[in-house]
Amino acid sequence: MEVVQVLHMNKGNGETSYAKNSTVQSKIISVGKPIIEEAVLEISCNNVIKSMGIADLGCSSGPNALSVISEIMDIVQARNRQLGRPVPEFRVFLNDLYSNDFNDIFMSLPAFYNRLKEEKSIGSGFCFVSGVPGSFYGRLFPSNTLHFVHSSSSLHWLSQVPAGLESNARKHLNKGKIYISTTSPRSVLDAYLLQFRNDFSLFINSRSEELVPGGHMVLSFMGRRSADPTTEDSCYHWELLAQAIMSLVREGLIEEEKVDSFNAPYYAPCVEEIKVEIQKEGSFIIDRLEAFEVDWDGGAVTDIDTAQGKLLIGQGVAKTIRAVVESMLESHFGIEQNVMDELFIRFAEIVGNHLAKSRTKYINLVMSLIKKG
Asked: Are 194 and 267 within 8 A, CB to CB?
């Protein structure tokens, strides 16, 4: 599976679209806002910036795509006015993979520019928004052109399926599973960790070239508290999705060999794994590194003890996961739409039953890094 070509959130504004099912990602952005604000204030206070370069990496599309950019601009504008300084011009770069729904973002820009003019008195000559398609596991921008980099709900996606676990591998090492699980052999865990190390170090090194000295980066992505990558908080949603897929295998709707050859290009690291790579690369100071719990449905359903609550939370989680992973499942399994629908109906039921017994949560890691000057 070529991740760069295949991975994208569900496009458009339909029932299964990312735009309609990104409440969890919005919640994650909200959790990180105080850390974003702190970083942006530090840049604004310590530097007189005439033209501020801001990049949002893994911006996706839908209502979240421009929300962080708008917040950053608000903070910069307010602080500069407090300090009696002119508001800088903003160079905004929105990055995601080539198959991202950039058209959706571009169509929302007129309304975004109007809001800037009416609510913030920022004219179009002071804000320049560009789309930058490509993988952030490598260089995207010229040297020393960015002041602030943000990325949310993206860095848990790897650049590729780990070596040895690809669909065309001679031997399938993780049979019946689609990610790390308690039954995965040690070689699978090691392959995932190695791929994360390679990718994250490349990401950090690339940004160190693009950020100005003293520039800040706030990164937010799925992780885990434990050193053990098989714990529920790091991988159990994949375990439940595998159960739903295997139920279709037993009915002959999906080929078992297709399951054995699929491994998600995803990794939820622990804090120590992140620190090791940042310190090894050497260009950044870790200003903040915190872990937050996030409900699988973003906290939308509170009456989980009722039958209706169990149904709603299962459906909500299933829609969120479907909006994110459907492009990969469709590419690998080649299943028809009615089978995909059935898969996520079953997944919703499995999730609802699980969360009624154990309110497993995602662990979201948020870090603020400063480029050494």
From this structure: no
